[in-house]
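Figure S7 source data.
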Amino acid sequence: SAMFEAKANNQSIRLFHQDIHHHLTRSLEIEQGIKRALEQDLFELALQPKFMLEDMSLCGYEALLRWHDPILGTVRPDVFIAIAERVNLGKVLDAWVLNKVFEQIHLWRQQGYDPKPVAVNITANHFADAGLFKLVQLCARTHEVPLDCIALEITEGAAMGNSPVIIDNLRAFRQQGVKVAIDDFGTGYSSLGYLKDLPVALLKIDKVFVQELENSRTYGLVNAMIAMADAVGLEVLAEGIETERQRDILKRMGCDQGQGYVYAKPMSLKEIEKSLA
Ligand code: C2E
Ligand code: CA
Ligand code: CA
Ligand code: CA
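Tokens for the predicted C2E complex:
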């Protein structure tokens, strides 16, 4: 039986190596795919509406990347964004999304629509880059759209970085009326005591908490997050609201805004345009 175990071990080591090999190959394919998709303009944007919990009125959108690749198939954004961030393609992707968003807002404004602010997700290290504000400003000028037609979302982890440039960027955006949200709030172990001093407007409570509201500890945690955000004058949005029950609980807790399938899924630009008309 000792021999059997040795064999079994060898087998699992081989499988383990195959796993790693497969993983690395896939990462490399995706990295090359991102560059190709940028050149061939294969990325698309979906917009997901955000609502005020109080009266269900629309209050903005979030831009979400979509990639259906002819060779790689559909690649999920959390997968390719993580790879892009690792191989230094995050800033290029951000620039693509910003440009696309301003271009679309320009077209809608030309058609006489005045869409609510579209929030753009910014990749991990970009907020620590002194060029970010200028990039956004240039994009806005190029498309002749006021800066405050967009908003920004940065993850809790990225906001916690200790570069003073992060604060400079946050201040510059605030001065121009661009609201910045802390994304995936609650997953990054930061203290609200620290966040209260950041010049941000909104906390987005991550969907893992919303989907676990039936759990009494999670309920208590979310309730506390909303109360504390309120106490320091920040707005709160809960993401991933899928049921009316979750929506009602969050509304009762005093959560300001909501986003999720119970209201609307991410929609194509065409679908959004129809809803504007
Ligand atoms: P995120 O920023 O936390 O975005 C929320 C995710 O939740 C989106 O997934 C959205 O489609 C999904 N979602 C919305 N409502 C519901 C709901 O009711 N239930 C459930 N289960 N999910 C819901 P998506 O589009 O797959 O994006 C995943 C992540 O990829 C995003 O998480 C964000 O971190 C990243 N991402 C997506 N687009 C971009 C982008 O343009 N730039 C950057 N930097 N990151 C992006
Ligand atoms: Ca987001
Ligand atoms: Ca999230
Ligand atoms: Ca409030």
